[in-house]
Fold these 2 entries.
Entry 1:
Amino acid sequence: MKRAIVYLRGVRAGLLTEDENGYTFTYDTDYIASDKAESVSLTLPLGDKPYHDKVLFPFFDGLIPEGWLLDIAEKNWKINAHDRMSLLMACCKDCIGAVGVEPITEEEE
């Protein structure tokens, strides 16, 4: 299982996981209760119910670099282009825009 923390403007907004059933995104309860809470994407409205899909949510997939930058990421980290979650976790900690994605290591679990 792969897990990552999703940040919005530097604030922990939710958790994204990949397992044998697909992908799940869940907003943190503390984030939802915050007066500054907002959705990370129009396609993932703020709420307490988890979102599930068989493929990586288009919003998160859109954060992954393309073209020559993707080639560099694949070669440097030896990540298969079809492993979208690993690419997201490797390349999108500090990407352009308000959202960042950080992998959760086994030590943090």
Entry 2:
Amino acid sequence: MISLAGRDIRHAWGKFVFTGVGLGLLIGVTLTMAGVYRGMVDDAKVLLDNSRADLWVVQQDTLGPYAEPSSLPDDLYRGILGMPGVARAANVTYLTMQVGHGDRDVRAMVVGVVPGGPGEPGQPGYLIAGRHITRSHYEAVADAASGLALGDRIRIRRNHYLVVGLTRRMVSSGGDPMVFIPLKDAQEAQFLKDNDAIVQQRRRTAANPAFNRPSVPGLLEAVIASQNTNSSVNAVLVQVRPGESPEEVAAAIRRWKRLEVYTRAQMEEILIGKLIATSARQIGMFLVILAIVSAAIVAFIIYTLTLGKIREIAVLKLLGTRNRTIAGMILQQALALGVLGFVVGKIAATFWAPAFPKYVLLVPGDAARGFVAVVVICVLSSILAIRAALRVDPAEAIGG
């Protein structure tokens, strides 16, 4: 049997190829949107992996340092170190801000860590260049995605820092590269007021009659001094001893320290189930819209191509060709268009994904599901054209 679909494709191959390329770009966008969501989930998991913590101790009734503000005294970690099952505990601060570098700004998550080796909670797990932070002030380790290099000087608030190390895939849940600085500097950057605010606060304190009583000598000076100290952190990262249950250690800390403690599974649920849930729904809506648009395009193209060969279909019917054969030919053409579009889309998504500012993770499972969806869309989209072809009167081969 003559393949009408194949002959028609060869006859109008330019139109078919350009249509397939256009559809492929649309499919590429769809695969990229799915990759953006996968990248967001992977960023959240990488953030937890890079913290090198088993437990996150945060302010009571808060969701932790990544989802909402949390403030703890910076000496709290000593008491946590004495809890049964705790191997290590370290303070950490997180602050997303603009980091100055020359005449440009870099959006980054500034992480305050205790200077030490890579085994400490909060420290970068590995470096691709340079060394870890060893001094208590004015050194930084940056993620390579920030565009910084060894020896660069960056500005955070009022201080300047020397980049002494570079790491990779150290990002926040939003995909911002991390910049690690000593904890004391991070506390100053996050909690210390600017000079004008300090002066105004001193004036208000000095004008308060409650702090100028003769019976309380030195009270005013003590209050002013306390306003200049930074004694807060966002969380305490805890590593449990080998063989200990993180859930049991977390329960003990909650009971005796009256703090909120999250395990790795709970923190992952917060990041994925709450922090990026809205973005996931938005991406899902885009995927649905793109699927509908793709179906409409395939249906329109196949229907147009079918109407363009009404005479040929009428001749086939006049020769006794069964409706099943005609429907199969149209379906073959729709599937060929879908396969061509999927191949173009997969290649396009693979090439342009690294250029996106956010991490795009293309997984084989999504590609397989996307191919199945394209096949289903092509089958459904060909129904309209098949119905039009089956209604063709064989007499049209003689009449028109």
